[in-house]
Write a structure and sequence with these properties.
By secondary structure, the protein is of the alpha/beta class. The protein has helices spanning 5-10, 12-25, 32-45, 56-66, 84-91, 110-113, 136-146, 203-213, 234-244, 247-265, 296-305, 335-343, 355-370; strands at residues 49-53, 74-78, 95-99, 121-124, 149-153, 161-163, 169-171, 178-182, 196-200, 217-219, 222-223, 271-272, 287-291, 344-347. The chain is globular. It starts with a helix and ends with a helix.
């Protein structure tokens, strides 16, 4: 699904030098490399504060902890997303409330969220799934109307740009009260291990986030609140700083791959290419088709027989997972999520895809529908 080695080989000399510099400095935790990456990412995103942490799941948990919510408070999340988005809500004793998503963009909207807001609702976590922004203008307006916090899960869309109706543009992850991301190796901006970060323009909130990520310390050995030990190490920061300079190029390469897939499948009515939202760029962390007529699994098997990888993100709605069963015993199924879970199929996409490899993938799909 992703080839990481060719990407590394293109920047090998810079990466190797940066890693060697960190090792020889013996500043493995914190230090100038982490600060330099943090400042570069702040500039790229045009956000006041970036707080690096150990991984994207920690980023979500820290964000919720910073809001000082109480046990039983409700947090709204999409039903069609990776488990981490909802997992941290339950771990903190909060109540995840899962809402449906748009059948074509796979992202939730303000219209889908609002019916689930109650007096216990305290926050919304929109997810910018597969590489494009969710309905942030509508969600921000809804949050202001109901006095709710907004935490953006930007793990799959770093580098995407959202355009408001007045023409104002912002990078995803910088629009809500807090944004979070993951630097898992396969992400558009990925490190060579685990890593994550939080973003905010709220300085008091940033101070709280930094404290939580560092054992609740206001200064060394003075702990003002319960916190976590969640740090981005200097080796990963050095790698990410170099790769950040290539991020727009990486995203452009993914967009070219996606456009070629689109053109190839345009004449196949059973395939629906990813729908682009008019108010967001799409950086294609995943290229996810909808496969009609119940043929998704057969197509996946056919591709596997040709040694073509594909993935189903996500085969089981979150509210049907055993881990969340006790939250949703009396809940109706969400129709769009149910349909999407049966139809989605993601194809290989990455910044170093060779034309002949993509041609082989495309031909495998065309042959399936020619028989």
């Amino acid at each position: 699904m992703v080839e990481l080695l060719p990407q590394y080989l293109r920047i090998k000399d810079e990466i190797d030098a940066a890693v060697a510099e960190v090792i020889s400095s013996t500043r493995y935790i914190g230090g100038p490399k982490v600060k330099a990456f943090q400042e570069a990412l702040e500039q790229y995103l045009d956000v006041l504060h970036v707080i690096p942490c150990a991984n994207g799941t920690d980023a979500l948990q820290i964000a919720l902890m910073a809001l000082d919510l109480e046990r039983g408070d409700e947090v709204i999340v999409p039903s069609f997303t990776y488990v981490a988005t909802a997992e941290v809500i339950g771990l903190l004793g909060l109540t995840p409330v899962m809402v449906d998503v748009d059948a074509d963009t796979f992202n939730t909207t303000a219209e889908l969220v609002e019916p689930f807001i109650t007096s216990k609702t305290k926050a919304i976590i929109p997810v910018h799934l597969f590489g494009q922004s969710t309905d942030m203008e509508g969600i921000i307006e809804l949050a202001e109307k109901h006095n709710l916090y907004v935490i953006e899960d930007n793990a799959q869309a770093i580098g995407a740009t959202y355009t408001f109706s007045n023409g104002k543009q912002q990078k995803t992850g910088t629009i809500g009260h807090i944004g979070t991301t993951s630097f898992f190796p396969s992400k558009n901006l990925g490190c060579y291990g685990d890593g994550g970060a939080l973003f905010t323009n709220d300085s008091p909130l940033a101070a709280k986030i930094r404290m939580i990520a560092n054992h609740g310390q206001s200064k060394q050995y003075y702990h003002d609140r319960l916190g976590m030990n969640s740090r981005l190490d200097a080796l990963q920061a050095a790698i990410l700083h170099i790769k950040l300079q290539q991020l727009d190029k990486y995203n452009a390469s993914r967009q070219e791959v996606a456009a070629k897939y689109d053109a190839a499948f345009a004449a196949i009515p059973q395939l629906q290419p990813p729908k682009r939202q008019t108010n967001s760029t799409h950086v294609f962390h995943q290229y996810t088709l909808k496969v009609a007529d119940g043929q998704r699994d057969a197509l996946k098997t056919s591709l596997q027989e040709r040694n073509i990888p594909s993935m189903i993100y996500y085969p089981v709605p979150l509210y049907r997972q055993k881990a969340f069963a006790h939250y949703f015993q009396d809940r109706q199924a969400l129709p769009n999520t149910e349909q999407i879970s049966q139809e989605v199929l993601s194809l290989p996409i990455h910044s170093e895809m060779k034309p002949e490899v993509q041609d082989y993938i495309i031909q495998g799909i065309l042959d399936f529908y020619a028989t």
